[in-house]
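Let's practice the habit of predicting before peeking. Look at the sequence and jot down your guess about where helices and strands might fall. Then scroll down.
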Amino acid sequence: MRYRLAFTIAATLLLSSATLLAQVTSSDAAGAFWVTYWAGPRVILFGPEEDAFYKNMKDVMFLRNDYDAPINPSALDDNVQWLKEHPGVRLFVDGYASVTGDMVYNLALSQRRADWVKQTLVSRGISENRIVVAAGWGELYPTCAEDTQECRNKNKLVRFIYFPS
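Done guessing? Here is the structure:
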């Protein structure tokens, strides 16, 4: 547990400082890269199980400043069902927030989202050891980079990332 916490803190600090530097030099280019990455098809490196994971696991969306009441609870239900049908699959739970608000607040909010989703999965029968890490990334790695409310809403989510066994 301590190693996971230390890893999460170290990764958050490292990526936060890297993001601050990226924002100073060229925030538009960095944002454009991640928007393109998340919008594109997944590169499947580990075979059909990973492909099935990305075809079936759905993002869990949240309202502004909310972390424990998703706006699409059926996505979480579907994810639990799929994970129960595939007991060998391990994953990362990644929380995100929009650019509205302070960076530190967004990191904390996204971590609460990731932790809440992880605890919900566990409470519904998914073994905790299948969830490698639940991490909050704040406003890093956006799905949409436009400065509109509709776009910001797309960045208030929890994503699931496949982890090879």
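How did you do? The chain has one domain: 2-163.
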